[in-house]
Amino acid sequence: MNKKWMIGSLALSLGLLSAGSGALAASPPLSNTGVKSVAAVAPGKEGPALVNNLTVNSVVPLVAHAKALYTYTHRGGSAYMPELFQYNAMEYRFLSSDLGTKQKLLSYIKRAYTHKAAAYYVQNQFLEYKGRMAQVNADMGNLLQYEKAKARMISKDTASAVFELSVPYPEGQGPNETVIVNLKKVNGYWRIDTSPDILF
């Protein structure tokens, strides 16, 4: 089975993604698993996370989904050859058109993050220049495998939660990292309440 289908099948089986425009779709689960609908989709086409029953099992796919959203925005979206420009002696790149305005970028990030976390991320990691969103032309990141994390609940009530994740690197590349994830319930669904640039 190729990696795209394996990842799609994993997302499908974990019940994380919405059934928007994906190649694989399923009807809502029969039991109350905290998920309404699922699909495997291309980067940039992810629907909102629909986790309403937050557990040690559902927080890991939620964080993996949030990481995918972060990765897509952090690389500038879908543009293969982004338009570059100089600003304050630094090279910037415009984001692809699907993320090209502040509203589009915020809406995309809020698929897995609270408004506060998304607004902080947009304010601190992006530049609005001539009506378009841009970012410093650099690639950063880590190799942590959030989809393989193990979770431990630290605290949870009806509106907020804190989980500790033990996140592995690829085999042989270092010990697991401990990551604290703060979450809040927004309109019935759980969202990460930490800016993606701080979390990842």
UniProtKB/TrEMBL annotation:
Gene3D superfamilies per record: 3.10.450.420
Keyword presence, Signal: yes
Taxonomic superkingdom: Bacteria
UniProtKB keywords: Signal
Pfam (any one): Endopep_inhib
First and last residue of the signal peptide: 1-25
InterPro entries given in the database record: Endopep_inhib (IPR031841), TA_system-associated_sf (IPR053749)
Keyword Signal among UniProt keywords: yes
Annotated coiled-coil segments of the chain: none
The name this protein goes by in its record: IseA DL-endopeptidase inhibitor
